[in-house]
Amino acid sequence: MPKRFVVPASDFSELPRFPGDLELAEALTTAAQQLHDTVTPHSTMRAAVGLAVRLLPGAEHAGISVLERGSGRRTVAWTDALVRTAERSGDGDGGGPSPYWDHLWRAPVVHLTDSEAEVGGASLAGLGLRSALALRLRADKRRLTVLTVYARKPDVFDDAATRVGRLFTAHVSLALDSVTVREQLTEAMRTRDLIGQATGILMERLNIDAAEAFDSLVRASQRENVKLRDLARRIVDTNNAR
User: Fold this and answer.
1) Do residues 115 and 207 share a domain?
2) Which positions of the chain have pLDDT values less than 70?
3) Which pTM was predicted?
4) Phi, psi of 51 (to 5 degrees)
5) Do residues 116 and 191 both lie within one domain?
6) What is residue 98's predicted lDDT score, i.e. its pLDDT?
7) How many Cα atoms are found within 13 Å in the side-chain-facing hemisphere of 74?
8) Is residue 6 domain-resident?
């Protein structure tokens, strides 16, 4: 029976040189540029799954999923319908995550060498997916974001594919962090402008100063249990509709 194994993070503290490392470096640089050209976390992940199939030796399909403790697995980006079906069906008894996926809470990389021979691999085997390589993108105590590549033949993903995968996911993680920060800053600017408009409307409507208008907005938000930006948007939209 093929052996499942988990690769500890320490195995990648010093990555050896690759044959044709110039070509790999150029490919990763191009991939990094494409990832950093994306404008939302979702578009970054969509780009990442397509690039994963092109970059990782042996990869035919790819998906990114979010695993939450006690809440199962949710696919957020995929190269094709087969991946979405595979990740939505679950690999364990009753459709939940199998022990295979549970290893990702303890290690950044997990191989599935042959789904037909692995406990919990039946759903993948039934879809014709025999090999899988899962690599963590983000991790905290309750949530993992994971990139998984699949192949139709068993024992496809060797050490070289794993090392390329680790290098690639480092770029994906950096791109995700960058685009998330940009999105948050953009949203903060939009929220600030929206709250400013709502405050101005209340100043005019109630004949009060800016501090009093903002305090009134905050109190109403707390009283109605509505986010401040949502309440501000409601006030602005109502005023514009007049």
Assistant:
1) no
2) 1-21, 89-100, 119-120
3) 0.73
4) -70, -35
5) no
6) 57
7) 8
8) no
User: What is residue 64's DSSP assignment?
Assistant: E
Q: Which residues pair with 132 in a beta bridge?
A: 112, 150
> What would the pLDDT profile of 35-76 be if each residue is shown by its tens digit?
999 999 999 999 999 999 999 999 999 999 998 887 778 899
Is residue 144 a contact partner of residue 105, using CB atoms and an 8 Å limit? Answer: yes
Long-range contacts, 177-186 (Cβ 8 Å, 24+): 178/36, 179/36, 179/38, 179/39, 179/40, 179/41, 179/43, 179/44, 180/41, 182/39, 183/40, 183/41
Could you tell me the two tokens for 4? Answer: 């499942």
Distance in Å from the first CA to the final CA of the chain? 72
Q: What range does the domain containing 109 cover?
A: 21-180
Question: What confidence score (pLDDT) does residue 77 get?
Answer: 96
Phi, psi of 206 (to 5 degrees): -105, -5
Closest Cα partner for 216 from 203, 204, 225? 203
Phi, psi of 102 (to 5 degrees): -60, -25
Domain total of the chain = 2
Per-residue tokens: 89? 């069906």
CATH number, residue 155: 3.30.450.40
Say if residues 61 and 53 touch (Cβ distance below 8 Å): yes
